[in-house]
Fold this protein.
Amino acid sequence: MPTPAPLWSAHALRAAPDVLKEIHAAYALAGATVHTAATFRTQRRAAGEAWEQLARLAVSIAREAVPTTHRVAGSIAPLEDCYHPERSPSQPGPEHAELATVLVDAGCDLLLCETFAHVGEAVAATQASAGRGLPVWTALTAGYRADLLTPKQAAEGALRLVDAGADAVLINCTPAVETLCYVDALVGAVGQQVTVGAYANAGDAGDGMGWTDDPTRQTEGAERYAALARRWHDAGAHIIGSCCGTGPATIAALRGDPALSRNTSTHSRKSVEK
């Protein structure tokens, strides 16, 4: 279905809630056990006066779609464009706190601050989420061309995120073929203090890891992705998943890989948590 601006994926909350519920259920069936509610664009500035209603609906849909033993994560995203850190507002904290308050009240099990290329805003979102009685996972992104943050910048940012209250620091929505160096950097910086994780995007269509509805190509791409994820795990990433361009087949491949699934439980949006 279309995902038009400014709501993007949150458009489905109104236009196709049943489809969204089916998607959550498909990830549960594939092996995910932490499911990210569709709150990536339910901030006031994107959704207007209906923002709180949409955020609560997203959490409710996720909760209804998955087993009661699974966890639901509330997504807290950049206030503007995740691939344009220069657009980050100067004082983002109050808006992030507003959404965090609702996500906690709506019954999320953890808060996922994700896809931040602007380290300062990531810190503000983490601070706004911490101290509310729930785990806080914060994910930085280098962007779809891996050019928005260097591994060194990500490592320096990770240290700030830990100080801000993050319980886990991740790299997300960066091409899978470019992700290992970021995992190495995060583990080197904070791996002894908090859990490190990675959930990459499928990269360019030519990488052959996603962006397709063909079942055979989905399976082949998922296996390629899992092979890369095994390297992230070996490097010290213990929350492993997948982002844009992937699907339930990717999670099934992660879950089915003995090196990744041994002594692990699964995390969604698609990830596997040790």
